[in-house]
Structure formats: structure tokens, C-alpha cells
Write a structure and sequence with these properties.
Blueprint: E1 2-7, H1 25-39, E2 42-52, E3 70-73, E4 76-79, E5 82-91
Antiparallel strand pairs: 1-5, 2-5, 3-4
């Protein structure tokens, strides 16, 4: 049976900071590799997906997002902020 798991960049902002900081995609991939090794799943595909920024950085539920509506006109953007996640498609053993 096929399934997928999304790996969302963790919020790594220091206690006192001017702006939010998140894991790099390389750091997310390190977590993906650790999870694959721990779970011993058969990976079918890994892709990056751009989704609206999750309002709760602790949440891992990306199933409610069906589109990514954002309009850009020159230097102005309207709509949700976006984030790049790693999605791992795998076969359950």
C-alpha cells in the first residue's frame, strides 16, 4: 500500500529574534533520511512541494491544503506566505 509523509521545516528561531528562522531543505532531508532508516520503509519517490505556510509550526497535517493561491505584481505579493516541504512517497511493508 502506498502512503506519504510530509516533512515540514522546523522553526529554529532563537528565543529573542527579529524574524522567524526555519530549517534549510538540507536539514529537512537529514530528518527524512533518519526517518527512512528508523522506519525501514521502501521509498518510492521524494519531492518538494510548496504549500501555504502552516499557521502552527508544530502541525504536520498538510492534507487540508489543496491549492497555493498567491498573486504577485512586481515587488508586491498578495495571499498566503509559502513554504517548501519534503514529501516522501513510500510503500508500507
Amino acid at each position: 500500500m502506498l502512503s506519504f509523509r510530509d516533512f515540514i521545516p522546523a522553526d529554529i528561531t532563537k528565543a529573542i529574534a527579529v524574524s522567524r528562522r526555519y530549517e534549510t531543505l538540507t536539514e529537512v532531508l537529514d530528518r527524512v533520511n533518519a526517518w527512512v532508516a528508523e522506519q525501514k520503509v521502501e521509498v518510492i519517490n521524494v519531492e518538494t512541494v510548496i504549500l501555504p505556510l502552516l499557521s502552527n509550526s508544530k502541525s504536520t497535517d498538510t492534507s487540508r491544503y489543496t491549492d497555493n493561491m498567491q498573486l504577485g505584481i512586481g515587488m508586491f505579493s498578495f495571499g498566503d506566505k509559502r513554504q517548501q516541504i519534503a514529501r516522501v512517497w513510500y510503500r508500507k511493508n
